[in-house]
Amino acid sequence: MTQTYLNNDRLRLFVRYLVLTLIAAIFIFPLVFMVMSSLKPSQQLLIDSGSLRAFLPVGDISFDNYAAAFRRAPVGLFVANSLLITGVTVIASLFLCSLAGFSIAILNWRGKAFVLSAILATLTVPFETIAVPLLLMSSKLPWIGMEGLELGWLNTYRVQIIPFIADGLTIFLFVQYFRDIPKDLVEAARAEGASWWQVYSKVLMPLAGPIIATAAILKFLVMYNQYLWPLMVVQEEGYRPVLVGLQYFFQLNTAWGEVMAYLSMITVPVLVFYLFLQRAFIASIASTGVKG
Amino acid sequence: MKHLRLTAGALLVSTALSSVANAATELAMWYHGAGNEVESAIVNQIIEDFNASQSDYTIALESFPQGAYNDAVQAAALAGNLPDIIDVDGPVMPGWAWAGYIAPLPIDEAEFADFLPGTKGIWNGTMYSIGLWDAAVALYARQSTLTELGLRTPTLDNPWTKDEFMAALDAAKASGKYEYALDLGTAWTGEWFPYAFSPFLQSFGGDMIDRSSYTTAEGALNGDAALAFGQWWQNLFTGGYAQATQDGADRDTGFNTGKYAFSWNGNWAAIGTLENVDDVVFLPAPDLGNGSVIGAASWQFGVTTASKHPEGAAAFIKFATQDKYLAAFSDGIGLIPSTATAAAMTKNYSSGGALEVFYGLSEGQALVRPVTPGYAVVAKVFEKALADIANGADVADTLDAAVDEIDADIAKNGGYGN
Fold it and tell me: Between chains, do A247 and B75 touch, taking CB under 8 Å as contact?
């Protein structure tokens, strides 16, 4: 009898892992296709794309496409630009949006419900609808730089960072998370004489790991995948991010092997960032039900 | 000591003044060729030569990838950030001229008298841009296919008639050797549709818009000739001659691997095909009743309205359109040089060259796409209509709807200045 239960458990486990493996395979196939294709000449890549060979390192395999991709475009510059823009925006966003979330969720001030509603309302506005007014504003905004007062933010890093630091979704995530933390913790800290800054930085933020990971991943993906905005505000190659750089590979006769090599390279930072934060991200989804 | 100071001061001032007097004016230029090593090298060479040839101006180049170029120019125009010189795709030129992005070219049109018609960007009688090359489309075939199927080899002077063309497709289909008789390149969406397929409509006697007024598509896109074209176009797919939807890989390799008997393709693909198909021949467009027609106009240089030094920008454009540079571009990227004298300097388009036939096609059959600021909408509407008809939509209804959409856009924009 016990043996039968054991066999049933093993069978259930086997089936479960089989299903999970199949699902994982479906999700990983595009990545495998991308990496394998990046190792093949364009002609072979196109011929293989209609069969299972597309997912296998067979045929004329080499790293030639990677070398060609570096010759065609300043790949390192584009990746560095995107990492800089994304990194600064994520860090600044986590700081400012968590402060805003703290203020709305924890502090008592008149009108905060209205402010939160207004912030949430911004989620319904697609970026494309404000892109042109934002462009016109950005082209006239002043800035005090090394050479004194200057007008216009075009062709800078700041024009790709500052407009995206604060956003409704990140603020909302922090508001929700802070609201779920027991009020006793805040009250106890205040009773011990902690300032509001200390409550924020010493009590709440150390508990906010999962939501920080979630917000960071979501923001990272949005920023790393920026295309329209940098296309509009950056004309100098020195400030272009990775997705605008992808266009370098689409010529009259597109070299698909190089496209795949470039995509493989620019995907690495995203995978590393996700793997680094995935445990906290999953914990956050499990606890709040928020999905990216 | 006092004299020494005075002398040093005078030296400094005179040096500063002379450097101001001699400083060349920097002109910004935007170009769509980022990512194309060969093209970029030639453009940079021209700029280097120009900068060295005189001391009044220096050109500072910013290259953009082609897929992002038009959007970047439009955004820059909005933000008041246009450079002095831009390049513009031929059919887009009227739109940019109408929107005030580019100014009339401050060069006498007579200077370009020997340029191919498709390389001249002329709108409302004014020249706005000039191209260093043109592109042409031909019907790719194998000589062995023509021989096996017993087909006459058509020439520029004596192209296939509609009946001959359809008979060739029937013969290829009946041979059973090919998956499809004709590769139209339907995998290439976007500008390929109006560029490659509107010439068929024009060869039937119709057009995407009434070119006599540019204020309506009525009659041109839904008249008897257009309806006949639509039925013929639909029959290419329902009759099993071509694919309404095509895999991109088939477009790139299908003709070379023998999947198709004929391929409707541009000269930019010819070099690659010559490397793979020994006996490839490039045939002129069939005459479907109203003469053989192919599309024309590629990228061209223009001066923006934002330029404070249009004379300098014009000097550069004049410099860049020398035969040696036209030939260099042609040798480098395989496109058709703008002049016969430049063609004679190239390896592919000179007498006996592998692509010589394309120069003749461009010279003899080319018709520029409708020269109107409304072309962007016309092109999109036309593409959708052709895709719908290819997939079985009613021809008359689809063309009528397309006409309504084009006319509504023209009305909404006050006739685009026409």
Answer: no
Question: pLDDT below 70 — which residues of chain A?
Answer: 1-6, 252, 284-292
Instruction: Look up the CATH number of domain B26-135+298-368.
Output: 3.40.190.10
The beta strands (E) that lie in B16-164 are given as 25-31, 57-63, 85-89, 102-103, 120-123, 126-131, 133-134, 137-142
With an 8 Å Cβ cutoff, is B278 touching chain A? no
ipTM of this complex prediction, to 2 decimal places: 0.82
pLDDT of residue A237: 95
Is B273's Cβ below 8 Å from some Cβ in A? no
Residue B191: Cβ-neighbour burial (10 angstroms; 0-12, 13-18, 19+): middle
Nearest to B334 by CA among B192, B141, B133: B133
Q: Residue B44, Cα to own-chain centre: how many angstroms? A: 22
Indicate yes or no: CB of B79 within 8 angstroms of CB of A237: no
- Concatenated DSSP letters for B332-368? HH-PEESBHHHHTTSTTTSTT-TTHHHHHHHHHHEEE
Cβ atoms of B126 and B305 within 8 Å: the answer is no
Look at residue A289 in the predicted model and tell me its pLDDT.
45
Count other C-beta atoms under 10 Å from residue A202's C-beta: 12
Q: Which of B67, B76, B249 sits opposite A50 (nearest CB)?
A: B249
Closest CA relative to residue B116, chosen from B132, B93, B94: B132
Domain ranges of chain A: 1-72, 74-288
Tell me the nearest-neighbour CA distance from B226 into chain A, angstroms.
30
Q: Fill in the amino acid letter for B330.
A: S
Residue pairs spanning A and B at CB distance below 8 A: 77
Superfamily of domain A74-288: MetI-like (1.10.3720.10)
- Asked if residue B366 lies in contact with residue B292, where contact means CB atoms within 8 angstroms, the answer is no
Spans of all domains in chain B: 26-135+298-368, 137-294+374-417
Q: What is the mean pLDDT of each run of 10 residues along chain B (418 residues)?
A: 53 49 86 91 97 97 93 95 96 96 97 96 96 96 98 96 98 98 94 97 98 97 98 98 92 94 95 93 97 95 98 98 96 93 96 93 94 96 98 98 98 92
Of B68, B248, B253, the CB nearest to A43: B253
> Is-same-fold flag (B26-135+298-368; B137-294+374-417)?
yes
Measured between alpha carbons, how far is B96 from B90 in angstroms, rounded to an integer? 10
Query: What confidence score (pLDDT) does residue B17 get?
Result: 46
Least CB-CB distance to A235: which of B62, B247, B253?
B62
State the pLDDT at residue A128. 92
Residues of A in contact with B31 (CB under 8 A): none
Kindly report the nearest CA distance between residue B57 and chain A, in angstroms. Answer: 20
pLDDT at A147 (0 to 100)? 82
Q: Where does B137-294+374-417 sit in CATH, by number?
A: 3.40.190.10
**For strand B120-123 and strand A142-145, is the pairing parallel, antiparallel, or unpaired?**
unpaired
For A71-82, the three-class secondary structure string (H helix, E strand, C coil) is HHCCHHHHHHHH
